[in-house]
Design a protein that fits this description.
- The protein has five domains: 126 residues, HPT domain (Four Helix Bundle (Hemerythrin (Met), subunit A)), CATH 1.20.120; 109 residues; 181 residues, Heat Shock Protein 90 (2-Layer Sandwich), CATH 3.30.565; 146 residues, OB fold (Dihydrolipoamide Acetyltransferase, E2P); 117 residues, Rossmann fold.
- Helix content is 46%, strand content 20%.
- The chain has 22 helices and 25 strands.
- The strands form six sheets. It has a six-stranded mixed β-sheet with strand order 10-15-16-13-12-11.
- A hairpin with a 2-residue loop joins β15 and β16.
- α1 packs antiparallel against α2 and α3 runs antiparallel to α4.
- The radius of gyration is 36 Å and the shape is elongated.
Amino acid sequence: MGIDPELLKQLLDTFKSELDEQAQVITDGLLKLEIKDLAQEDYNKTIEAIFRSAHNIKGASRSLGIVNVGEIAHAIETLFSTFKNKTNAVPAIIIDLCLEAVDKMHSAMQAFVSNSELSFNLAEFLQKLQTQNNDKKVIIATPEPEPQKNSSADSNEVLKYETIRVTINQIDRISALMEEMQVNKIAIDDLYAEFHDLHTKSKNLAETWTKFTLDIKNQEKHLDENVKTSLHINSDYIYEIKNSTDQLYTNMRNQINELSTLSNTLQEEIRMLRLVPAANLFSTMPRYVRDMAHDMKKEIELTVTGADVKLDKMVLDGIKDPIIHILRNAVDHGIENTSEREAKGKSAIGHITINLKEEENRVLITISDDGAGIDIKKISNTILNKNLLTQAEYNKLNESEILDYIFHPGFSTKEIITEISGRGVGLNVVKSNLESLKGNVTVKTELGKGTTFCLSVPFTITSERGLMIKCGGELFVIPTSHVERVFTIKLNDIINIQGSQAVMLNDHPVVLHSLASLLLPAKNEISIGENLSVIIITKDKYQVGFLVDEVIGEREIIIKPLQYPFTALSCIAGGTLSGSSRIILVLNSSDILAKALHKNKSTPIAFTTKKIEAPSNPHILVVDDSITTRTLEKNVLESKNYQVTVAVNGQEAWDLLQKQKFSLLITDINMPVMDGFTLTEQVKKNENTNYLPVIIVTSLGSDAEKKRGIEAGADAYIVKNEFESSALLEIVSQLV
């Protein structure tokens, strides 16, 4: 053709997309023409749409030299030119033949791209199309002239946006780079947390040094000049370090906040690039169901609504097999043949509906049929005949739990295997594929009336939140999607129920396992300290508690798949990187839960006694942005041997409360970043800190302010102009 190879490739990619779009218009139109009693206006519009799409394919394919595709499109165009302005319905044989023509256009396109021979005889097929004309002869349609576009824009013209076609591979490369950026961002967050500790230490050093210099000030006249000089120089160094770390900490915090905002925005923009209309998949389903129904000698109509919802291309590709599998089962197992339906008083035509709708950050896909429904008795017989459960275990199931067994691997109640429903591949493929997308599926049925499958999938698959834990001395991460609750218990909170250890949650017992017993059987020991950490994992209707050594905290994670031979590791979903580039294994919540439930009884948990240190003096957290006030309060408290840590605002105090245990909190109200009222409310609402007594020491002394402080949860309220060290110490003594 004399065209640059790279340009030709781009043109072919563009034409392939156009062919898909125009061929789908033809397919939709042909299926619409099968509707009985189609209104004349709809009939005319449909005929015109098919004719116009065939005409467009013909012109575009011929311009690129894709002759075979153009010949088939020209034959469809010619055929449908004879149906214009007519009232009689298009015969079924022509609809079948034109649907076959659409398939052959795709086949011819594939042959052109791969430079291979056609898989069918083009001349014979074109002759079949041509002989279907009413006059039994070839009619050459005269293409209508394309409307001329005015190159000059007037003031009323609608602004058009320029667009370009971008391949999914290009977007995938950008997404991969974005993931690497997210990994680096997480590493920076970890380094920032380490610097936060250094920042706190520098402030504590400066405050300790201030106290030290105050203590020796009265003795300054007795000091050697060299000592005085050394003290002066060291004071300058210490305050310079403190001021530098203050400034650096503030700048880092601002930059990291900006980086987080930019990163999240960029991630969202890339996510939007990957979103494609669900119609890209679901528009092909009516044709798919029609062809299957014809093979089964059934009449079935499929209706799709809500397909304008947009999904990540990866998610859309992932749900294709589950959707097709459910539709196969509906056509083969669900919808009865015409005689059976009429005998039951149903319409001769079976109906399947697919509805898509957005719900928060997920898409719900409901697939319903008006067929025979699922026979619960047959499922029960199969469960028992295949020894999937003992009679005693079966007797404990309710109807919903019995119905869930249709998702069991290899499960089938149908004795005859057909080409439609597959060869022994049950609905478990639906469930497993959806779980890999972080989705789920439920089913409802009514015997004789039909079945409904409800699929729930996320819009997109992006970075996740993970809970970092220590188990058996090793670090792991659990995705928070299935973590319902994290809390601590005492040893005597563990109870025995039917030979299993359990813990009470919301007045119901939850079976308790040592997570180490599932992951690291050789390290199945839990150290007994003041508290034991429990993680509750929930999936569907199942719930299990797991004891771990320590819950370190929540963080953003990017899960990377493991490479062979580690792909076969049980209970492992992949790996993620820590800030120090250490690989931390990410646990598969579903596998852990299934492994725990597989055991009839929880393995007895082995406890070892942790060495408990002698109790130290009460540790008090003082929060005030005034260095004078917090130094005064710190000195008063330390004079009575209390341990004291200081913070300059509510946010810094809250961060400290997540890492350390304190006996008392003393806070000011007016502070930058987070004020004292907000800090008090957060402390009292959080289950890990609501034990902590709070004293508000502030210059705000109105009744309204005092009332607000008490409503926020403060245990005492002291006005600074009424401040007396003895009064403060008395209240502290009472509260600790």
